[in-house]
Amino acid sequence: MLKTFMRRAGKFAAIAAAGLVMSASVQAAEPIKIGSFLSVTGPASFLGDPELKTLQMYVDKINEDGGVLGRQLELIHYDDVGNASSARNFASRLIRSDQVDIIVGGSTTGATMAAVPLVEQAKVPFISLAGAVVITTPVKEWVFKTPQTDRMAAERILTDMKDRGFTKIGLISGTGGFGASGRKQTLDVAKDMGIEIVADETYSGSDTDMTAQLTNIRNTDGVQAVLNFGFGQGPAIVTRNYAQLGIKLPFYQSHGVASDSFLKLAGDSAEGLRLPASPLLVPNALPDSDPQKAVVQNYKSEYEARWDSKVSTFGGYAYDGLMLAVKAIEAAGSTDHAAVREALENIKGYVGVTGEFNMSPEDHNGLDADSFRILEVQNGDWKLID
């Protein structure tokens, strides 16, 4: 009887063990869910469209190469149309219904900030693709970002202005989240650098003509150069109005328009303007010793071959976001939220399209102002200046 009992016990143990192995195999085969909400259509589509295309392309590529941790990636995406309320709803759906492992998205600052309280409460790692400093300053435990901050952009622009001898400038900015934050950071940085803002004008997202604001700047005594901080259609309108008024002062834009689509919108009016951007727009101008050269060249060639359209700085933010997510999951050895979050926070020396990322508990962006390159529009194309 004892032998019979032992045989049965052994059989049950074997069955249980087999069940555990089968369960583990099924679990291992489950896809890693990458959630995303982006402004693919609407006024910020020039951001969201290349971001989504980038995520789709590299999720496919990674899956073809065997996935991550032996599992395929599944991209779950929603189009928030640039609306913060929609972004919040989609973030909630990604967390509660789709139960994603990590979120890579948020084309705009408004959309990102609408989602932040949800991801912080649910404790889901979130890598934003938006630019404002408020996203990661002060540090939020579960929130990271790939673009340089608007403060870094202000630092890079004002440093270039000062190097050219300009210490009194005119500022014009959009009143939306990105423009308003950029204006605040520019005012703060200018004060620290001993640069005087002698004219300060704004415009709303619905404005179709900014000649009045630019005329005020032109008529202000002492203005040596002008900076526009905004994104969307507004900066292109400002650029065209600037040329129409015949203003000859050196003109700068922010990184919010660093794309070939802006050149198309602004046309010949953009000639001579400068802005801070990633080297993605001028990859062949980089020296061979630059660690970013191969990265940006590869991304540019792969994106343009796949989509038959020009590469965009904003798509580069999505590339870095996805690759940082993959590196963190691989380092964590799982999709455990806390482990992935900790791995993200400790990424060092990752050379991406945007720059070299060095994250820390005190810095969830991991970039500095020097990751920006100063570009100038010459003969209708981008030229690397510094």
From TrEMBL:
Gene Ontology terms: biological process: amino acid transport
CDD domains reported in the protein's UniProt record: PBP1_ABC_RPA1789-like
Keyword Membrane among record annotations: no
InterPro entries named in the record: BCAA_transport, Leu-bd, Leu_Ile_Val-bd, Peripla_BP_I
Pfam family, one: Peripla_BP_6
Leucine-binding protein domain segment(s): 31-378
Keyword list, A-Z: Amino-acid transport, Receptor, Signal, Transport
Family affiliation: Belongs to the leucine-binding protein family.
Protein name: Extracellular ligand-binding receptor
Native species: Marinobacter santoriniensis NKSG1
